[in-house]
Amino acid sequence: MDVHFCPQCTKILSIGRHGDFFAFMGLPRQLELDTTLLEQRFRALSRQFHPDYFYNATPGERRASLERSSYLNDAYRTLKHPVSRIIYLLELEGVLTSADRSETSGSKHVPPALLEEVFALNEELDEVRERRDSGVPADEWRARLDRAAAPIEQKRDEHERQLVALSAQWDRVREQPLDAPERRQVLGALRDRILERNYISNLLETIEHERGSGLPASGSSPEEPPSLKPEA
Predict the structure, then answer these.
(1) Which tens digits make up the pLDDT trace of 108-139?
(2) Could you tell me if 69 and 164 lie in one domain?
(3) Domain count, the chain
(4) What is the distance between the alpha carbons of residues 227 and 90, in angstroms, rounded to a whole number?
């Protein structure tokens, strides 16, 4: 648990002494969090750090209260939602970087587990674009898009279930030694599911783009959709 105030003089401490969002909130580094407890911690710390309480304090204390209030808001927003909580944990554990997420959310870097879905979707999108360009009624080609989206949506739902199960596994192994095989395996599986989830979101966004591309605004042309073709 983070120490927010000096034990000797009771003054608020600089944000430089914080550890991580979990420690800052006085919570264990686990993924199945009690959201009621998280809310309670957030409200209690918000009152303690509120700048109004430090109106007559030293400049250093006023700055510390503002820094801790801002950090508290970031911590609460991150830990409140299961997916952002998983991403943050993976970053803390050093198995996920922002570069990883940016690369996989880009359309050309297809996770191996999604290759079959991506190739099938590419073929369907080519067919839909051909039919749309040839003047086929919108209801018809949009119905094909709906059918093309169905397996991607099923994959997304499957990943959500896997993330829930893996989160429970992490909570069981989180206190094992850092190099414990089971601990590393769970972190690796969580990382893979998160990166695949990012790509699935990109696929669904592409389908949504295609749904609306047949009706450009007056005087404008449809925006070019992102490519889903895997890099060689």
Answers:
(1) 577 888 888 888 888 888 888 888 888 888 88
(2) no
(3) 2
(4) 28
